[in-house]
């Protein structure tokens, strides 16, 4: 509404008829100002999101003339679960309950095709009849039976790197000297006794019946053996997995060799050796190996002896 400011300086010497229109104009002007003031407040409320249809994303909080910035809620950082460090598996040739047998020489009288006797290769493994449990008799060109104190020995073949699991289907060839310290097919070329092969059963076991071998000069009383992964490999005289020897218990040796009629020179030879550690084959083995490679025997010279030994392979 337009308003002339010069009219405010006029005097009041006019009558009611003149002042009434001015009074009504002034009243109307004040109402207009009040209306504008109210409209401004409503606009401010609407601008602050006071309406029920306002979006919360558009709202701004006003406190004492300052704008408050909402503090964001921190996102929790998850602590990663540490990855467990794997325990290294120790490489060992032994497990609880069994020890890997030491590799030993097969000696000068193996008859396994690796050397000769009387000018020809000696290989009893290719001979028919070599697979047998009782090895006391010759079976090639003679039927002579070796005499002496009977010994029955069971060998259990196990894998020391697989919790001593039995190894079935393997072939074990054993041989030893007779009661006088002589070997068939060599110092006794006409004989083939005290040699034989057996295949391990589901328990990894083989059993041989032989005699308690004599003790010859320079060696601790022993039994030779070779292990093959199959009978085919054994009877072809090749690919031995292990070549080793069994040491006979000292106390049993002393008892058996006391019969100098049956074992004429063994007692003297055995006394001269002294101890297992002084033997040129067993002397460099560990105590654990010699213990495992010495069969535990029970029995007597009259009834014979029965023994067992566990042969460990580190496969």
Features of the shown structure:
globular, disordered N terminus, alpha+beta, Protocatechuate 3,4-Dioxygenase, subunit A, 5 helices, five-stranded mixed sheet, 315 residues
Can you describe this structure?
The chain has 315 residues and is an alpha+beta fold. The protein has a domain at 94-313: Aromatic compound dioxygenase (Protocatechuate 3,4-Dioxygenase, subunit A, Sandwich), CATH 2.60.130.10. The protein is 19% helix and 24% strand. It has five helices and 15 strands. It has helices at 16-47, 231-235, 250-257, 266-273, 287-292; strands at 62-63, 66-67, 94-95, 98-99, 112-117, 120-123, 150-159, 165-166, 171-175, 195-199, 205-211, 222-228, 240-247, 296-300, 304-313. Strands 7, 8, 11, 14 and 15 form a five-stranded mixed β-sheet that branches. Strands 10-9-12-13 form a four-stranded antiparallel β-sheet. The longest helix has 32 residues, at 16-47. It is globular, with a radius of gyration of 54 Å. GO terms for molecular function: iron ion binding; oxidoreductase activity, acting on single donors with incorporation of molecular oxygen, incorporation of two atoms of oxygen. Residues 48-123 are annotated as: Disordered. Residues 54-97, 113-123 have a biased composition (Low complexity). This is Dioxygenase.
């Amino acid at each position: 509404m337009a308003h002339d400011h010069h009219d405010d300086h006029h005097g009041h010497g006019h009558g009611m008829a003149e002042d009434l229109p001015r009074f009504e104009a002034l009243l109307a002007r004040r109402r207009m100002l009040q209306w504008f003031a109210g409209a401004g407040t409503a606009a401010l409320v609407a601008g602050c999101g006071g309406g029920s249809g306002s979006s919360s994303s558009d709202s701004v909080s006003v406190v004492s003339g300052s704008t408050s910035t909402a503090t964001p809620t921190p996102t929790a950082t998850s602590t990663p679960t540490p990855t467990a460090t794997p325990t290294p598996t120790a490489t060992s040739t032994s497990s609880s309950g069994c020890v890997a047998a030491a590799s030993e020489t097969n000696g000068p009288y193996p008859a396994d095709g690796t050397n000769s006797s009387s000018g020809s290769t000696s290989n009893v493994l290719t001979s028919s009849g070599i697979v047998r449990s009782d090895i006391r008799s010759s079976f090639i060109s003679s039927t002579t039976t070796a005499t002496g104190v009977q010994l029955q020995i069971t060998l259990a073949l196990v894998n020391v790197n697989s919790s001593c699991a039995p190894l079935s289907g393997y072939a074990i060839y054993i041989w030893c000297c007779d009661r006088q310290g002589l070997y068939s097919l060599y110092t006794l070329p006409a004989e083939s006794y005290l040699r034989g092969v057996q295949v391990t059963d589901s328990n990894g076991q083989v059993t041989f019946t032989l005699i308690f071998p004599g003790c010859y000069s320079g060696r601790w009383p022993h039994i030779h053996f070779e292990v093959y992964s199959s009978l085919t490999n054994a009877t072809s005289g090749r690919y031995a997995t292990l070549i080793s020897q069994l040491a006979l218990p000292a106390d049993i040796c002393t008892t058996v060799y006391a019969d100098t009629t049956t074992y004429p020179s063994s007692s003297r030879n055995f006394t001269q050796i002294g101890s297992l550690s002084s033997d040129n084959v067993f002397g460099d083995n560990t105590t654990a190996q010699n213990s495992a490679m010495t069969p535990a025997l029970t029995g007597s010279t009259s009834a014979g002896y029965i023994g067992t030994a566990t042969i460990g392979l580190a496969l």
